[in-house]
Every structure is written in structure tokens, then in C-alpha cells.
Amino acid sequence: MSQESIDLLPFSQPFHPTLAASRETREDLARLLLPELARPIISLVYNPWLATRRDDRQDYRAQALDHGFDDEHSIAAWYLSTEPIPEPTTEGLSMVTPQRIVFQTRAADQGWATFGGDGTFENSHTWFEASILRSVGQGCQQNESNAPKDALRDRSWWDIADAREDLRAQGWEFVEGENGRLSWRVCNNLTASSEFRNYTVEWRRNIVAAAEDERAIGNGEGFLQLLGPGCIVVLWARAEQRFWVNKVEGATIEIEYEFL
């Protein structure tokens, strides 16, 4: 990746402590202070993070169904995925709990709309969604080297649910939310805006994110409660309706987690 790309969409956090660095710092604090004080201090200022990014221009155009009505257009494209959340059994930990996730996208649509909404989130038909994947039959337990990102990166389907069979072929399945939901809306692009813009969405555990405009971002309700050790997060680029295009220049995912 180029420095120019990073400058256009920098990570939301200035640094991302590794699990090893965070554990070492907590152990040092435990020796200097009371051990029971070390954990809350680290939780406030030095939790470990998983961070991933992609800086790669891709245009995702809504496609017609292979069968059915000609006016039904959609696309769900795998754009970015994380490494697995560390597992207690492999890292010598007793618990790993994701506390916060930050999504950033740099994107635009095709720059025009037939039915208005220009420059707002009304009539927006390009957006991003996030899913949680786990290893088939093993809960969220999977080896990092077996993550499906290389096999499925840049694959696209008409809808997210249509990816289920291909995911299972790679040994992965969706972690389903309430009422069988497979994905959570992250954010929409401004309508009829060809200028690339940065969008940031932050979700915290047990907190429903508030939004000034609910058409702009999703609240992430229940997402972090389902994100467990060994799971990965996938960011999907979406578009629907004829002629709509989700133009993506980059994206980042950052996950903060606590450990014992």
C-alpha cells in the first residue's frame, strides 16, 4: 500500500497494541502496583487491537438476477476481512472479549440518481454491511492460516445469503443474530455523490450506537456480543437497483478486545 492511500484513509486509532505488548505491560503494572489495579488500567489505555486495511479501488455494480424479474438488481461483494480473534486455548488466556469495533470506508456512488436525494442519505442504494464468520461445526474456533480471505476476496454474489454455500466449501459459516440475521448494516454512501468520502462507524459492546441520521449508519446492536474468539469479521460492499455502483477506494476494520 502507498503512503498516499494511508493518508487518504488513516486508521482511527494512532496505534494498535499487540496482545503480547499489552500482556507484558499489564504484568509490569501488576509488579509495580496492586495486581487488581493493573487490569482496569490496561483496559482504559492499552487494550490489544486487531487491525486490517485494504486500499484498492473496486467498482461494484448491481447485477440482475440470473432468473426472476429483470428489475431486481443487487450485489454483495467481499471487500475486506479480519484475522481471527485470538483464542484463549492457543494464547494461554482464560478469556478474550471484543469491546469495540471501528469500521472506516472511503467510497462513492455513480454520481447521479433518478429519484432525488442528491447529497443526502435519502434514496441511497450503495452501502456496506458486516458479518461474523466461524468455523463450521466448531464455534468460533479456526486457525489464522485457514481464514477464507484469499479464496473469497473480490468474490461477489447477488445477496449475502447466497454466499453461504461457498463459505461452507471453505469451512466457514455465518454467526447468525436475532431472527437469523446474517449481516449488520455499517454505513451508506451519500446519494448521487461521485466524490470519494471517508465514513467512520464505531460500535461498542452492550451499547447501541446513536446516529443523527439513521439512514447514514447502522447501530450494531448485538454484533459484538456474538463476536467471539476465533471468529472473523467480513465487510461487504453492497449496491441495489439498476445502474447503481458502489465505488470503493479503501476500508479499515479495527477491533479492541480485553483479555484475562
Automatic annotation (TrEMBL):
Superkingdom to which the source organism belongs: Eukaryota
Keyword annotations of the record: Ligase
Keyword Ligase: yes
One GO MF term attached to the UniProt entry: ligase activity
The protein, known as: Ubiquitin ligase
Species of origin: Fusarium denticulatum
